Amino acid sequence: MADNTCSSEYCNGGWAEVLTHMSPYGYANFGIAFGLGLSVVGAAWGIWLTGSSLVGAAVKAPRIRSKNLISVIFCEATAIYGVIMAIILANKVKKPDESTFYLDDNWDWNGFYYAGYGMFSSGLSVGLTNIASGVSVGIAGSSCAIGDAQDASLFVKILIVEIFASALGIFGIIVGIIQSNACTFPIAALE
């Protein structure tokens, strides 16, 4: 039986070691990527849900085509919230003043890791909230298109529900901004 255990100094003991030894810059950039990527997934999912119903219901009632595009715009707003948060987070990532391989012993390690973890959690919060918002807006927009095709008086009533579903994304970006507010990367060693 062959032993597949790595004996090199470059091996790790598993995912726990990989995650605990990852750079705070890596966590910050993953937070930016998750915030933007998951927001776009939420927008695409919502557009898929509402767009397919809109096209199908427009066969029966062509008058609903243009006014029900507001549902697609609400879905797209969730992707825009992710872009806004990605810009905010990307502007917080700063490189150290000195370009060295190792940082000084008196470096603010606590602040360094706090910034990385905070930006990761902020981006993940915004991304997951925007998936929920995009799906909610998509389902409400789908119902709006189908309901409007049946009875034109239902459009405004269902649109209000859709606005509240879109507000979930706004709440997510507010929470993300609050989470990332204190996240600043130290750029120099402590005095």
Characterise this structure.
This protein is mainly alpha-helical and 191 residues long. The chain has a single domain (24-88, 108-182), classed as lithium bound rotor ring of v- atpase (Four Helix Bundle (Hemerythrin (Met), subunit A)), CATH 1.20.120. 70% of the residues lie in helices and 0% in strands. It has 5 helices and no strands. The longest helix has 42 residues, at 109-150. The N and C termini lie far apart (56 Å). The model has no long low-confidence stretch (mean pLDDT 87).
> Describe the biggest sheet?
none
Give the amount of beta strand, in percent. Answer: under 5%
Task: Report the CATH architecture.
Answer: Up-down Bundle
Order of H and E elements: HHHHH
Poorly predicted ranges: none
Structural class: mainly alpha
Mean pLDDT: 87
The overall strand count is: 0
The CATH C-level name is Mainly Alpha
By oligomeric state, this entry counts as single chain
Q: Please, how many domains?
A: 1
CATH topology: Four Helix Bundle (Hemerythrin (Met), subunit A)
Radius of gyration: 23 Å
Overall geometry comes to elongated
Helix percent reads: over 70%
Distinct helical segment count:
5
CATH level 4 superfamily: lithium bound rotor ring of v- atpase
Q: How widely separated are the two ends?
A: 56 Å
Subcellular location: Membrane
Keywords: Hydrogen ion transport, Ion transport, Membrane, Transmembrane, Transmembrane helix, Transport
Family: Belongs to the V-ATPase proteolipid subunit family.
Main location: membrane
